[in-house]
Design goal:
Elements: E1 12-16, H1 20-31, E2 35-39, H2 65-76, E3 83-85, E4 88-95, E5 102-108, E6 113-118, E7 120-123, E8 128-129, E9 146-148, H3 149-157, E10 174-181, H4 202-216, E11 221-226, H5 236-246, E12 248-251, E13 256-259, E14 265-270, E15 277-282, E16 284-289, E17 291-292, H6 297-304, E18 330-332, H7 342-360
Parallel strand pairs: 1-2, 1-7, 2-3, 7-18, 9-16, 10-11, 10-16, 11-12
Antiparallel strand pairs: 4-5, 5-6, 8-17, 13-14, 14-15
Helix pairs in contact: 1-2, 1-7, 4-5
Length: 362
């Protein structure tokens, strides 16, 4: 008499975070036949992706917003096969008794608790946009025609006129983008924020949004105040060369913004080339805010037993990429690990998911 073979239990994984990184990893795991439970602290999925608008002019600008939103729809839609728990957070994490997995306790906003077991856990909790109100001299929240890059992203995504003056709704004909707001400063304008790193995304969205502004309003003049311009993709050289012809680039970091009675904004800066203090007026000033560690990231790291780097992002950095956390069954992906744009986030999440798949299949 032959003994019937034991039925193989389908391996499972838990993905913490239902943004772009979580979506990309979830799709890879599902395609490999691994069951996925997604835990999202917010009441809806998507992370930052639903707040972004396509920046196409008469041609695609390769901003990858449509790619991000499609990943989210496929991963978390009703037919995806993933179990999605929204308004829920991980409150406990420990190795399983047999050492073959991880046991999690998750708690909903209403206090309902659920226990989960997984062969691998992924932290993909995204990032927090820098709060420009911290920088008092820039007047964000006080000067009506000073907005953040995320503000115009949201307006554009909602179908509203993104590049008009909030004070009166009139088209902005003189637009300034101020780069590195909340990035690349040991102390961001003498505040105690640890921001001495590049956020990687600001140059790409500012230049693409500037080109969109000129496409929508050919009379618009765009000025970019910058430290340097970071490469942001395979089409960087072409895009940057075109922007250099169409826009004014001023190598300077403004030190003060002031509202004028007519609604214009005076930008005060020191020109790097000559060291002279100068002033220019604009109808609209856009602060290109950077990426900060995710809200609640430190608390989640403590629960999962993973380290934080010197800036507060999840995971100790090394030459190994992707690198699991302290536990070989806990992984980190996307912008919660380090600042990344959409394409980089998706690529990183897929690479990390490959490591999770290998672990689950052992």
């Amino acid at each position: 008499m032959t003994t019937p073979a034991k039925k193989r239990i389908k391996p499972s994984a838990v993905v913490i975070g239902a943004g772009v990184a979580g979506a990309a990893a979830t799709l890879e795991l599902l395609n490999a036949g691994i069951g996925v439970t997604v835990v999202e602290r917010d009441s809806c999925v998507g992370g930052q992706a639903p707040r972004f608008g396509c920046k196409a002019t008469d041609a695609c600008q390769h901003c990858n917003v449509c790619v991000a939103q499609e990943q989210v729809r496929k991963a978390f839609g009703p037919d995806s096969g993933a179990r999605v728990l929204t308004d829920t957070q991980v409150t406990q994490c420990q190795p399983s008794a047999d050492g073959g997995g991880v046991e999690l306790l998750v708690t909903s906003g209403r206090g309902r608790q659920t226990r989960l077991r997984a062969a691998a856990v992924l932290a993909a909790v995204g990032y927090e946009p820098f709060d420009a109100r911290i920088l008092g001299p820039y007047g964000y929240g006080l000067i009506p025609n000073v907005v953040s890059g995320l503000d115009i992203e949201r307006a554009h995504a909602d179908g509203r006129a993104a590049l008009t003056r909030p004070s009166d709704g009139q088209p902005a004909r003189r637009i300034a983008f101020v780069q590195c707001v909340g990035s690349r400063s040991e102390q961001a304008h003498r505040t105690p924020e640890k921001t001495n790193y590049c956020s990687t995304v600001c140059c790409s969205y500012a230049l693409r949004m500037g080109r969109l502004a000129q496409h929508l309003n050919p009379e618009a003049a765009v000025t970019v105040f910058y430290m340097d311009v970071q490469c942001f993709g395979r089409d960087f050289a072409e895009v940057y060369a075109a922007c250099r012809k169409e826009m004014d680039f001023v190598m300077a970091r403004p030190y003060g913004l002031q509202a004028r009675p007519d609604g214009t904004v005076a930008v005060r800066y020191e020109e790097q080339a000559g060291g002279q203090a100068k002033e220019a007026e604009f109808d609209l000033v856009v602060l290109s805010v950077g990426i900060r560690p995710p809200a609640g990231g430190a608390a989640l790291a403590e629960v999962l037993g993973i380290p934080l780097d010197e800036y507060g992002f999840l995971g100790a950095k090394s030459v190994l990429c992707p690198e699991p956390g302290e536990s070989p069954r806990i992984f980190i992906a996307g912008a919660c690990d380090a600042p990344r744009n959409i394409a980089q986030t998706i690529g990183h999440a897929r690479a990390v998911a490959a490591g999770m798949i290998r672990l689950c299949e052992k």
